């Protein structure tokens, strides 16, 4: 099966308006991850490229490891709250989902390089620091619901369109094993005579009158990365680092679109209007592993100023995917009818590479301000399978390059207590119809002896999205979704 056909099927329940018909959703879903971070860096808008001296450097700019003068360990649990508001056919709904995960766990080992006797101990290579870190870089947890009363069309029209498009003349039913064949076998569509000369037949929906429609989607999973990194300190002016990232992903999605209404079907050879309930179910389970390389440098021309640059290679994934689609139908006073197909396959994904830069200005012991900028070209993402390049024209046509910006500040209120705030904008990869993701963040930190605690709250506005439960052309019904997320991060750490 062509990968573009199967991934195109995924888009039926979440088909973005004004995108391409064979929009490859997984390429964008698994390419929009962010560097994992401690609560401190999350609080300043995730703008950690030039900061250094934070365990987030392991998965962001490994040159920042060169700033450590002690070994350090921390772990960061997180709470994620998803809120999705929907509007469909004049009906408003809201759905939520909560999850708790491990966001970050990192350790760095400090090793000072001894200078020759009599040499200036502030010049040359001063330290080599090695870090190991786990980061959660993406969360897929959410529930999405929308529904209403539809008197204009129904999903039977979609099944009928598929049957008419793929029907082999002379056959009395659609091609065996297809979705439209399942719909035909469950009497949701039938072949009708059009009363034309010469005689012609076409498939039509058996549904009569208005139908109640309800779409429910439940999604779980995420992406994570394990990094091995090192950082060097040269003369307290130049800091260099590199990291190997080992990535993994897991994505599970169950989409159920249910219609209730009346259908005109044959009962004992006679056409009868019969109440029915039918559900179209799409189930996707995806897992994969990949790797990438990070290179970074930070320059400190004067004590107050730090300039950072970083490069992240594409992540090369090998992905196993199982997609299934099924129709369950029950007519009044009859047994449940259920049938469908499974489509397992394996493919490769190459995500875009990333270039980043950052500035940080320190105001003595009172704090700092910082800002980051990233460049990615999502149209460079590539899918392939069985040695074939696949059909990547949809990616080139539908995606674009983006610039992501992040900035924040930290202020020392008293000797051991810090306040932080930040803001970030993640550009939409879509050429048309997309919205930027905007994140506001704030938090505090407390240091005592060799221990520290940091707490951060983030509010993410993912913007609005237009989706379609099925596609029948100009009369397709659409739902408007508005997504937002409230997250809390807590970091506990120790220096040793």
Number of domains in the coordinates?
A: 1
What would you call the shape?
A: elongated
Sequence of secondary-structure elements: HHHEEEEHHEEEEEEEEEEEHEEEEE
Percent strand equals: over 45%
Head-to-tail CA distance between termini: 56 Å
Q: What is the CATH superfamily? A: Outer membrane protein transport protein (OMPP1/FadL/TodX)
Family: Belongs to the OmpP1/FadL family.
Pfam families: Toluene_X
Signal peptide: 1-21
Protein name: Long-subunit fatty acid transport protein
Quick tags:
496 residues, mainly beta, Porin, 14-stranded antiparallel beta barrel, two-stranded antiparallel sheet, 6 helices, elongated, disordered N terminus
Summarize the structure.
Keywords: Cell outer membrane, Membrane, Signal, Transmembrane, Transmembrane beta strand. With 496 residues, the chain is mainly beta. The chain has helices at 3-10, 25-29, 39-43, 155-166, 179-185, 393-398, and strands at residues 72-88, 91-112, 125-139, 142-150, 189-193, 201-205, 207-234, 238-267, 270-302, 305-312, 316-331, 337-350, 354-362, 367-377, 382-384, 401-414, 417-426, 437-448, 451-467, 479-495.
Describe how the helices and strands are arranged.
Blueprint: H1 3-10, H2 25-29, H3 39-43, E1 72-88, E2 91-112, E3 125-139, E4 142-150, H4 155-166, H5 179-185, E5 189-193, E6 201-205, E7 207-234, E8 238-267, E9 270-302, E10 305-312, E11 316-331, E12 337-350, E13 354-362, E14 367-377, E15 382-384, H6 393-398, E16 401-414, E17 417-426, E18 437-448, E19 451-467, E20 479-495
Antiparallel strand pairs: 1-2, 1-20, 2-3, 3-7, 4-7, 5-6, 7-8, 8-9, 9-10, 9-11, 10-13, 11-12, 12-15, 13-14, 14-16, 16-17, 17-18, 18-19, 19-20
């Amino acid at each position: 099966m062509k990968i573009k056909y199967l991934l195109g099927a995924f888009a039926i329940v979440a088909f973005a308006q004004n995108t391409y018909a064979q929009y490859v959703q997984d390429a964008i879903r698994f390419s929009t991850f962010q560097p994992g971070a401690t609560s401190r860096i999350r609080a300043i808008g995730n703008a950690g490229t030039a900061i250094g001296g934070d365990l987030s450097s392991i998965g962001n700019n490994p040159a920042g490891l060169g700033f450590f003068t002690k070994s350090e360990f921390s772990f960061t649990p997180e709470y994620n709250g998803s809120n999705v508001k929907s509007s469909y056919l004049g009906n408003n709904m809201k759905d939520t989902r909560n999850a708790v995960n491990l966001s970050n766990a990192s350790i760095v080992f400090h090793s000072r390089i001894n200078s020759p006797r009599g040499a200036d101990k502030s010049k040359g290579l001063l330290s080599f620091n090695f870090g190991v870190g786990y980061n959660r870089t993406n969360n897929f947890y959410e529930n999405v619901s929308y529904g209403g009363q539809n008197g204009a069309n129904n999903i039977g029209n979609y099944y009928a369109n598929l049957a008419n498009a793929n029907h082999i003349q002379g056959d009395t039913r659609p091609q065996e094993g297809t979705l439209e064949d399942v719909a035909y076998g469950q009497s949701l569509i039938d072949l009708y005579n059009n009363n034309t000369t010469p005689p012609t037949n076409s498939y039509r929906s058996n549904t009569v009158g208005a139908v109640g429609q309800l779409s429910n989607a439940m999604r779980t999973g995420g992406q994570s990365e394990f990094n091995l990194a090192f950082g060097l300190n040269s003369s307290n002016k130049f800091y260099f680092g590199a990291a190997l990232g080992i990535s993994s992903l897991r994505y599970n999605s169950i989409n159920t679109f249910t219609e209730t209404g009346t259908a005109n079907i044959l009962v004992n050879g006679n056409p009868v209007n019969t109440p029915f309930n039918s559900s179209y179910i799409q189930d996707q389970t995806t897992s994969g592993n990949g790797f990438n390389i990070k290179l970074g440098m930070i320059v400190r021309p004067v004590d107050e100023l730090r300039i950072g640059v970083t490069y992240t290679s594409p992540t090369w994934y090998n992905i196993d995917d199982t997609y299934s689609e099924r129709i369950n139908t029950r007519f009044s006073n009859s047994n449940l009818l259920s049938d469908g197909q499974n489509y397992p396959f394996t493919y490769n994904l190459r995500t875009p590479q990333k270039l980043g830069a950052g500035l940080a200005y320190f105001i003595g012991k009172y704090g700092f301000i910082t800002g980051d900028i990233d460049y990615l070209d999502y149209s460079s993402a590539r899918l392939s399978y069985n040695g074939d390049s696949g059909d990547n024209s949809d990616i080139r046509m539908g995606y674009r390059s983006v610039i992501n910006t992040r900035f924040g500040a930290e202020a020392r209120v008293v000797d051991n207590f810090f306040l932080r705030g930040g803001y970030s904008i993640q550009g939409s990869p879509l050429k048309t119809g997309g919205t930027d993701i905007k994140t506001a963040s704030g938090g505090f930190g407390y240091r005592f002896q060799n221990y520290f605690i940091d707490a951060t709250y983030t509010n993410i506005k993912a913007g609005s999205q237009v989706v379609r439960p099925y596609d029948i052309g100009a009369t397709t019904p659409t739902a408007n979704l508005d997504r937002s997320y409230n997250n809390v991060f807590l970091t506990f750490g120790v220096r040793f």
